[in-house]
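User: Predict the complex with iron/sulfur cluster.
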Amino acid sequence: MRTPLITEIQRFSLQDGPGIRTTIFFKGCPLHCPWCHNPENLNPENEFYFYAGKCTACGRCAKICPSGALKAICVPDKNAVLNFDKSKCTLCMKCVDVCLFGAREVVGKSLDIDSIVREAVADKMFYKHSGGGVTISGGEPLLFPDFTLELARILKTKEQVHITIETSCFANWDKIEPLLEFVDLFIVDIKSMDPEKIEYVVGGSHKKILSNIEKLINSGVAVRIHLPIIPGFNDSASDTKSYVDYLSQFADKLSGVDVLPFHSYATGKYAQLNREYQYKGISDLQSQKIMPLVNALNKKGLRQVTVGGIAKTASTSNIE
Ligand code: SF4
Ligand code: SF4
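Assistant: Here is the predicted structure with iron/sulfur cluster placed in the model:
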């Protein structure tokens, strides 16, 4: 069974499904959306964060680094400067262990299913009173189909909690279908209605994604759609029209649509992971930019159309 690293188990989460939830974030995704808001969940392997503000350039990490990836360099009239050559790093994590200042932190830890379940059911009482439960998210849970299935099965059959899965639906249907027995709600991202953008920018198959979404809808399971709206990628009038034309076919079947305007909160994470961020410096998308889409979805009779997610905004009626 392919096992994911877990980057976070977030308790009292209010945006990843109904009620109060615990959200489990798997590390690893088959797509590579350049705006990704959770870049720590893209790569399935271990990584580390480097917090430059905490680093005193003491050089302990450079001394222990076996591959020469880290070097403390003396700069005249300045303190030593730490130089990092990512191409030489073997991810041995020795530098994390020796840092006394908390400037380095491993991203992602190995947890077995029993430990995840134990932590996930700690707030069961809150799920009961709020209509909440557990959300399996990422990254992409379907990259680890057997692990996801087993986790969902235990949580549903032994613990009787409401299960939500957040997914791009970029997987073979035979990995999704077995989940129908245990999952109460699928939250599925549609990143564009343009097959070429999905293939060349995001790295998936539009045909496979839409086919899976339609199979989910026709199965009768609850489905919400997430529409991340990204400046210059899918925020034009024609993008709006394609979304509305497609989703209006399922107006009486979808549980809801959450329109998620681009924000730049992830900028710091890209720097801490020593990764380039193509959206660096791009401003947050103002909500009025996405109101034509929200209003058009409402006019077509889509239920529970929100801006920002389930808890953040109750469903929006037409706003002109
Ligand atoms: S050990 Fe920590 S504080 Fe010292 S140079 Fe390395 S990262 Fe900076
Ligand atoms: S994780 Fe990379 S940078 Fe850190 S000690 Fe190991 S090889 Fe060096």
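The chain has two domains: 5-44+109-307, 47-107.
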